[in-house]
Fold this sequence. Notes:
By secondary structure, the chain is of the alpha+beta class.
Amino acid sequence: MRNSNTNNWRSTALIAGAILTAGVVTTTSTTDVHADNSQNNAQVSNGQVTYDQVRATADQQLAQLQSANDSKEAQQATANEQSNAADLAQTNAQIDQLKASHAALEQEQAGAIAQAQASTAASIEAQTSAANAEYQQQINAQQQNEATQRAANDQQYAQAVSQAAENQQAVADINAQYQQALSDAANTQTSQAQAAANNYNSAVAKENDTYQGKLSAQKATNAENIKNAEASLASVTANANKPYEVATTNDVAVTGRVAKPQTDVKVPAYVTKYGIHLEVRGYNGAIPVSDYTYPEFANTYYGEYPDSAVITNKAAESTPHDISEMPLDFQPGLLSYDAKNDHSEKVSADGLTADQVQVLRALALSWENGFRNNVFKNYREFYNVVNKNDGFVNVAPVDLVSTDFTDNIANQVVANRTKYNVDNNSHTVKDSGMPTEATYSSIINNATQNLKKNLTSEFNGKTVYTDVNENLTTMQAGTPTLLNYAINLYNSMQGMYYGELVNPTHIGGHAVNLLRAGIRTVGIGFQKLTDEMTAKNGSGVSDRKNPSYAVTFDHVGFNIDHDANLTKEVQNRNVWGTSTVDAQLNTIKTAQYHVNKVPGTKTVTPTATDVQKATASEQQKLADVKAQAQQSLDALASAHQASLNKLEQQYNDAKAQVKANYDVAVTKAASVRDAAFKATGVVDLQAYKAQLDSAYQNLVKADQVAAQKLAADRDAKITNIKKAENAKLDAKINELVPSVDPQIKQLQDQHQAVIAHGDAVLAELKAENKAAYNKLAEQFNVQLAAIQRREDAKRANEVRLANNTVVLPSAVKVANDGNVDTVAFPTASNPLQAETTGRVQTVSAPSIVKTATQTPIAVAPVVTTVNHAAENTVKSNESSAPVVTQTAAVAATTNNGTQTSVASTADNKATKADNSEKSVVKADTVAKKQTPAKKSESSQKVDQSSMSIVALAATALLGTLGITYSSKKRHN
């Protein structure tokens, strides 16, 4: 008997869900129909002008006004240039005439000018000669004064020499007395210095003897103190080195039993021969076992239960006996089950308890993270191909978490599935028979709307992508124990994930959903299946004695602008709730590995560090004794040195006094000698000669300074003479030939005034033209805005369904109700526009309103698992079956003639393997001039008759499209 996890994944084609709202169905022609790129012929109301017509008229009139303005400005600029050129020619002619007249007058007065120049030169020469003569006379007087002073000095010195010869004997006697006084002073100095030296040497010798006696006594005391301290340290050290007994505890590592997945499962012969039939996006055929990139994935594909014929090797090491032996990682390979060796807790007939659900959530979370991390580490190409457009190539994923936040999501998903009787082959989507607000995507959007809003505001200018998806599988047990359910879920997830890794370009939807790096949390729900659900064909439930479950994995996360760093920073924030499975995981981890403490005793041999600590006090005492000994020796040496310094100072003072006494005696002898010379009239000839020479040199220096000033005064006088005479000459020449420079300057200033006047006239013209253009443009803008609001209001209730137009009822009628006043266009200020004023010009290229269309549905199986609303389109090289999407589009035309399409996409895009979606929020994008996205509840209500009309239209459309259903499978 096989379980539901076989090669029969269901292939579900979506039914085109027509928007069943009241309205009128009309048929319009459509051209160039392509997915998301269809065009309708422009529809223009007969009772009103269109936006494009007014826009064309505005452009034409503004262009004509601009052309006229440009022409007037060009004419004024040309006139300015011509006027400036004519005035410049006239000015230059007048200047040339003035220069010619001035040159003729200069020629006529050449003789008079030459005579004036000669007279000026003669006057300058005469006055310069007189100034030089005066200067030379002053210099000669200085030289004569210096000669007179030099002669007087020579005469005075000769008289002094004559007088000295007469007093020669008296001078000799005075000098002899002076020399004897110097000799006596020197002898006294020598005897006093010797006495001071003898006293110093005697005192030093006595001090040295005293110091040596004290030093010997102190060294003996120090040696005794150190000896006692060393003996005490040796005793303490010996005791510290003795071994001793202590109580202790030993760490004993305990490794629990963990089952190892088996990878040597026997593959049936028919699989080896015909290959595994796995449907994947873009590849709808049998994929042989040999085509698997990694052979170990082939076995994991089955995910069978213990009673399956495929698992024939029930190896002991692959058979857990309790929950604590379940592996927490998720390597490829299946587990086997042995009911006789199952020591786990029982599961009642009522199903799993809340605590048992948390244990299974903890295990499933660990396995999902194990799969993501193992694929990233060992099978990187699968991870990279999934995240190649999301900024996470070669960037490790952040572990998923299961928290109170995700538990609430999972519980609400289970409650809604139970309420609307959704079985284990159907996702939590609208296509499964539930309203939009009950779908998993709506539950997630409600739970994350505040976080999404905050992220959009925070990352203004960047795109915030929402990553949400759902995986679905079935869990059952032949034996009602928690372990049997856990092994069943483990093997089922092996097939759901590793079994879908076929090769890097053909990956099953469940694996793609889980490998997306943008998801951060997972809500794991356990929906108890009813007997009616398990009895259905294709339910995959092999044993109905015990409760079976549909297990949902709803993943949630955000990708910030496809930037891995920004995305991971948001993923690591404390915004995802508090973990609710840590205790369960820690219990299993502790059972698989923990450390026991065992009490005991041991003999401890002190280490060098122990001995060091035990003897530290005694070692310090010994160090203190040695330090004190050295301090006492240092104190004696310091006192001894102080005594020597004092004796040396006393000796230096004595020597200084001896020198002072000698200096006094020498000074007295010189004073006596000088007094004797003065009494006899004797003069020191050398000193007297030096005195006379110094007086003469001072006179010479003073004369040199005076001579420099005289030269400067002469030069200044000559300069003033030349300046005055040349000024007279210039005045004379100007009188003979007046200058024309002031007249030329006046003519040039007049020409510049002409240029400035022309520029001012042109600037004033440009300003007036610009104001007139802006005024006309503003008038058109006001009318265009009014027309835009009217057309937006009219199209607000129109939607497209295939080739049909559905007009929805409006709660508030559009103003005018089709009765549009005649539009009066602004009157052109330019005469060139008169012929077009007051009427609408023909629009050559009318705007085309694009509408969304439905792509015909193919009967071929479809597999797509990630539905990225903004980015994940099917590549052209993947020949996948088309996926039907249902959209309603409203086209809004902007002022510049472009159109912005506002599309609302139904949330029931189901896929064969899962249903996921990734929405895009552009934080800085604001849809302009579009109809309000939300309508009041009353405006959405429809009457029964209108509903019937649309239902009939939808039924006919579905029959035309040929929509069919295919068989259901277990993993969804």
